[in-house]
């Protein structure tokens, strides 16, 4: 049985990955500092260690005493807006702590890592759909910190033979179809949870950030990808690393762009309730359109998104939030 270390395994995407890894028969150890994650989100089949990646020595000791065949690295800071106010925190969290992890991998002779990267590494796209070979010009410190860690991964591969797959997520959304785990991240900034919580009365109304974009209906267009599909790609990437030992970067999106209006309309159909909303000014830094070309992941990993229809994304998010009004309740 192969042994996998998951950083940030108590967070949104991490917790879904831990469940899938356990289902697939891996021995899973989760490291999370619980600053944003929830102990209750961690599948009972995994071992859980509350630890901060800034504790380089503890991390090294862990890798030396336990052998891990691979690492899934989800832990990190994710709020774009905050990154423009506190860049140092993003470099500590996403770059320095990441280097601590790579050093621990060197010490423990662990050779495989899958990294949660982001579409934000591209910045304002030069063409749509976005390909992995497109220019990398992040417009915020979040995207820059993720790109810097991708570059560090490439250097560690070259110098120390650590193989990696960096997965550039587009708009992760939805929840596990079981309804048992989902997104519980405060502050809530993403469209799908904000919208669902507006229906539930947790927020007064949804703000639609701008209706004057050069898109089909004036609202921003995004590529929404179900968390379960993202997790599938991680398991495929792990096999890819074990079998091929080849380091690659992949976009993960479903390739279809939906506007904010389309998301609202679909949600009204799925939830069978009106979404209370107001139109506000644009949010700073939002590109008009972000849609992935994920052909590379389809070809090299054999990945196919299966749950990324907008109805299923919103339906599973609704199932989770409407039965967990307090999230995990911690
Ligand atoms: N959005 C919105 N209201 C919200 C949150 C988001 O209109 O309360 C819009 C946002 O401008 C963007 C899209 O919904 O066009 C998706 O935003 P989100 O924050 O979910 O993800 P991002 O694309 O920023 O990673």
What does this structure look like?
The chain is an alpha/beta fold. The protein is 39% helix and 18% strand. The strands form four sheets. Strands 3-2-1-4-5-6-11 form a seven-stranded parallel beta sheet, sandwiched between helices. Helix 6 packs across helix 10. The chain is globular, with a radius of gyration of 19 Å. Uridine-5'-diphosphate (UDP) binds next to helix 6 and strand 8. Uridine-5'-diphosphate (UDP) binds at residues 171, 189-191, 194, 206-209, 220, 222, 260, 283, 286.
* Total count of strands: 14
Q: Mind telling me the C-alpha Rg?
A: 19 Å
| Ligands | uridine-5'-diphosphate
Number of helices: 10
Largest sheet: 7 strands, parallel
**Range of helix content:** 25-40%
Give the H and E element order: EHEEHEHHEHEEHEEEHEEHEEHH
Give the overall average pLDDT. Answer: 97
Biggest sheet strand order reads 3-2-1-4-5-6-11
Molecular shape = globular
What oligomeric state do these chains adopt?
Answer: single chain
Distance between the termini: 33 Å
Low-confidence parts, pLDDT < 50 over ≥5 residues? Answer: none
Structural class estimated from helices and strands:
alpha/beta
Strand content: 15-25%
Layout of SSEs?
Blueprint: E1 3-7, H1 12-23, E2 27-32, E3 47-50, H2 56-65, E4 70-73, H3 80-85, H4 87-108, E5 112-118, H5 141-160, E6 163-169, E7 171-173, H6 191-199, E8 206-209, E9 221-222, E10 224-226, H7 227-244, E11 248-252, E12 258-259, H8 260-271, E13 277-280, E14 289-290, H9 295-301, H10 310-323
Parallel strand pairs: 1-2, 1-4, 2-3, 4-5, 5-6, 6-11, 7-10, 8-13, 9-14
Antiparallel strand pairs: 9-12
Helix pairs in contact: 1-7, 2-4, 4-5, 6-8, 6-10, 8-10
Bound molecules: uridine-5'-diphosphate (UDP).
